[in-house]
Amino acid sequence: xxxxxxxxxxxxxxxxxxxxxxxxxxxxxxxxxxxxxxxxxxxxxxxxxxxxxxxxxxxxxxxxxxxxxxxxxxxxxxxxxxxxxxxxxxxxxxxxxxxxxxxxxxxxxxxxxxxxxxxxxxxxxxxxxxxxxxxxxxxxxxxxxxxxxxxxxxxxxxxxxxxxxxxxxxxxxxxxxxxxxxxxxxxxxxxxxxxxxxxxxxxxxxxxxxxxxxxxxxxxxxxxxxxxxxxxx
Length: 233
Hints:
The protein is α+β, with helices and mostly antiparallel strands. About 30% of the residues lie in helices and about 20% in strands. The radius of gyration is 17 Å and the shape is globular.
């Protein structure tokens, strides 16, 4: 979008020592472009942030940084909301809806959630990279995003590799953003996109068979057919 290009140029001129734009003239690959960016910075912490988000909470970066600096924490995620202020993301649950879904999706942002978890810092197997902070050294220790996952589940795969290395993922309820899900890239609504999505699902299932069928952070007595934490009947 021309407005985006103009905004980037504005900040290039205003903060030439602090603001850089890296051009990557390649087919869209979320993992690749973020790995390229991570290679170009020596910052101690990395923030991955979609362009279809709007920050709505104060001290959001400080909140992410405080958690990401903990030695036992890998990826740190936020509460992401739809425009009507219902939940789009509050942690990722594996083994449901075929492979994975978002905890508490469509609940009010003010709801307590399952056992109060929507309003409390909570560990999950994964958090979305639409807004994710991770310490650079931890990110590098697991070799960053897997570029074989160009669009979907690259964040899940990263979080699971961090978990395997001893770092837990953490959701923070007080870091809040609107997320206009897939507004820029679009949904998986063409034969090619559907085929790519199915290939990425199969890739994650093959790599993480245990997590794909049994999330250690999700009660096995709860449903695998929805994101509402209801009893499995």
